[in-house]
Specification:
Blueprint: E1 2-4, E2 14-16, E3 20-23, E4 26-29, H1 36-39, H2 43-62, H3 77-88, H4 93-105, H5 111-114
Antiparallel strand pairs: 1-2, 3-4
Helix pairs in contact: 2-3, 2-4
Length: 116
């Protein structure tokens, strides 16, 4: 938030920042931006949406994996997880865990690894 003080020291400084709406005695900040509809979704839907997006990004990155197909030099789903934690807080970790578990359960081992 940015405080703007005026020349007159007796005046109260104005605070610029997100608008605060009052509903029933409770103050809520208005959410703006491309993730506003996700933040307003139920918690279970947020977790499932994160798990699906983590899984999709992981499957795409596994397409570029070093043979035998389950190790990558770069892991983009880590970025998805970091952004989710920063935007939604620690309560979203079950979505990350579920997405990572789905990826690990669906890793298709190549025939080179099975022939040993």
């Amino acid at each position: 938030m940015l405080l703007l003080s005026t020349i007159d020291p007796r005046r109260k400084p104005r605070v610029l920042g997100p608008q605060v709406a009052s509903s029933g005695g409770r103050q809520e900040r208005e959410i703006a931006g491309p993730v506003s509809w996700i933040r307003q979704a139920p918690y279970a839907m947020q977790v499932v949406l994160l798990a699906v997006s983590y899984w999709v990004v992981a499957k795409l990155s596994l397409a570029f994996a070093i043979p035998p197909g389950y190790a990558t030099a770069v892991w983009p789903p880590s970025g998805v997880a970091l952004v989710a934690i920063l935007l939604f807080g620690n309560r979203i970790w079950p979505g990350i865990w579920l997405g990572a578990a789905l990826v690990n359960f669906t890793v298709d081992y190549s025939s080179h690894a099975r022939c040993r």
